[in-house]
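Please check this.
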Amino acid sequence: MNASVDKDTCIGCGLCPSICPDVFEMDDDGKAIAKADVPEGKEEEAKDAESSCPVNAISIE
């Protein structure tokens, strides 16, 4: 499963790394990045982060 963050859309709220720190982290520019593909067993957390993003900047495929 692949995770990605649209940095042009991201507002840097920090929800995604708080929900799924195995996949997301905040970059030096204050916006989120997907640091890894979604590990086995973390799919639900990653999808929670995707659905919780206030600007829909996360895609999980």
In short: The chain has two helices and four strands. The first helix runs from residue 15 to 19. The helical segments are 15-19, 43-52.
